[in-house]
Amino acid sequence: MANSRELKFRAWDRIACIMWQVDEICFNDGYGNTYANPGLEYTGIQDRDNRSKRAGHEIELMQFTGLLDKKGKEIYEGDIFNITVEPEEINQVVFYGGRWMLVRHGLDLMEWHDEGEVIGNIYEGLVEQ
């Protein structure tokens, strides 16, 4: 059996200015016809407690990296990640060159995820510690 990781997403809602944990993504043409083509205009996003439907240009999807920080928090694309070993360094998590990277110095997140912590994200800013 192939090794696989959980595919999870969150979405920044550009209209309501809130972050959604995404349970379901539906691609359709606006008339209820669902397709597996992500290039179509309408994207439905739903969370467990509320229901929201936004057009694709109204949201920013961010994928779970499959990694946890040193405190056990999930790391997502777009997170602000603080490497807490000397010297401390704040980075943004991005997918680049086929892997999850820490932008500032091109560090591989796989090698550093347990040497730091998520301290916010690029949409909501830094979280009070």
Short description:
With 129 residues, the chain is mostly beta strands.
Task: Describe this protein's structure.
This protein has one helix at 109-112, and strands spanning 9-13, 18-22, 24-28, 42-46, 51-55, 59-68, 74-76, 79-83, 89-96, 99-102, 107-108, 116-121, 125-126. It has 129 residues and is mostly beta strands. A 6-stranded antiparallel β-sheet has the order 11-10-9-8-12-13.
Task: Give a topology summary.
Layout: E1 9-13, E2 18-22, E3 24-28, E4 42-46, E5 51-55, E6 59-68, E7 74-76, E8 79-83, E9 89-96, E10 99-102, E11 107-108, H1 109-112, E12 116-121, E13 125-126
Antiparallel strand pairs: 1-2, 1-6, 3-4, 4-5, 6-7, 8-9, 8-12, 9-10, 10-11, 12-13
Please state the second-level CATH architecture of the largest domain.
Answer: Roll
Please outline the major beta sheet. Answer: 6 strands, antiparallel
Number of H/I helices: 1
Shape: elongated
Summed up, the domain count is 2
Q: Would you list the SSEs in sequence order as H and E?
A: EEEEEEEEEEEHEE
Helix content: under 10%
Low-confidence stretches: 36-43
